[in-house]
Write the structure tokens for this entry.
Amino acid sequence: MNVHRIDTLPTEIDALVSESSSQGYRFIKRLAVEFQSGANRFSLPGEALFAVFNNRDLIGVGGVSQCPYSPELNGRIRRMYIAKKYRGVGAGKLLLKRIEEYASTYFEQVVLFTDSREAAKFYERCRYLPVNLNKVSHAKSLGECFLGGNSDLKRL
């Protein structure tokens, strides 16, 4: 498996849109619609979209954007999805690590929102702290990604 930063959506995104929609997740379809319309192309400073591939097969996407709901020092993990077949084999962790590495050059911490218990457990295994804020369910200090502690989580 490998992760690449992308500037255009791979044509294989349609398979992820279909699969995620069948599971009740609308955010990958929203990614495709917003990307195509230009409403969100992860192109502002600090933003990036990544894709994870197994050989040539697109198996997941995710990105980081500026966070509109918290201070300017926060990035926001957005539109992260791994194909069901590849969950539990390290694809999500590989993608998230790459996003965090990129984000750490722009932001002190990252935040995200999920209402999925499965996703919440995944992020907590990846050392995100649960928080109960408006449109933010989890946060992680990016210094923690590389230094080993989450004690310096900034006030959101």
Observations:
- The CA atoms of residues 31 and 37 lie 10 Å apart.
- The two ends are 34 Å apart (CA to CA).
